Structures are given as C-alpha cells and as structure tokens.
Amino acid sequence: MLRIGLTGGIAAGKSTVAAMLRERGAVVIDHDEIAREVVAPGTLGLDRVVERFGEGVLAPDGSLDRAALGHIVFNDLQARADLGALLHPEIARVSAEREAMAVAADGDALVVHDIPLLVETGQAEAHHIVVVVHAPADLRIRRLVEERGSSLPDARRRIAAQATDEERAAAADVLIDGAGSVDDLRAQVDELWARLQAELAEERG
User: Residue positions in the annotated binding site?
Assistant: First the structure.
C-alpha cells in the first residue's frame, strides 16, 4: 500500500487531479466529503458545531448552513481552530476506516487522501508522498468568482485563510502546476502515476 497526501490551494485544480488519479485506479478518500458526512443532521458532529457556534449555523431544515458557518470561521482564527478541533478527529477516524477497507480489498492499493488543509493540520508526515497542486493566487481568485460564484472579497478571504503557496511547496514531494489546460494537467498526472507505480513496486520489494 502507498499512502499519498493530495492538497492544494482552493481552486488550484486539486479536485481535477484527484479525479484523474481515480480514473487510473487509485482509491481516493475525499476528506471534504467526510467533513460533510460528520456534520449531517442527527450526527454528534453537528450537535457539537451548534453547541460551539449557535443555532445561527443551522438551515431551516436542520442541516448545517455552510455559508453561515463559513462566514464565521473565515473571519475568526480562533473560531477556525475550534471548528478544526471539533471535526478533525472524527474526519481522521472515518478516513482511517476507509483506508483500512481499501487495503483489505487490495494490499497493493494506491490510497490518495484528498485533504484541502493537509499542511495547515500538520498531516504531511503521515503520507509516503505529498502532492501539491498549485496555481497563482490571481488565477484562483478569478476561478472562484467566475466558476463558483464567490464575491471578490470572499474569494480573497478564503485564499488568505489557507496556507501560503510557500508553506505548501515546502511540504511537497511532487508539485503539479494547475494553471494550464486540462491536457497539461493530464500529462503531469501521467508522470505522477508512473512515479507512484514505481514507488509501489519498491515498497513491495
């Protein structure tokens, strides 16, 4: 088994890289998806979030109002830290369970942990290889505004709330440039996939 940590700044192209790796046969564990699951209605995670941040983070149907919570945590360092302390242990537990299932099914699995805040949460050392997808901040801001409907101030806040490009690069074993075309990205993923296959063969001995 080879454990890969995949991360990158918001709107850098990380999700596209994850999808390409999945197409090639990797098991992708999406930590954002798990983060949504652990605060679904009826979960202890949602109860804890409401206890810390108040009823204002709930939508009328009782689900988590992500926009309301996001507005709080993107503007308050302590609130962001509190949210992480509430949810990261549960996310880690679920992701470990999914990795164990993947390895039980295939001892030679390439398991990609897609973790937006891998660097911020100090998880780089837990992976055999860390892959960072990067793109210039101005391009990521444009993508957030034009493709995801963010306002310009919100896009800037979201980028400022994450690790810097330099911090992510320092943790990277592999850097992928997400600023170009999909074909450019695909070519880089092909190179990465060849490296991962070689690393896996070496792990097998």
Answer: 11-16
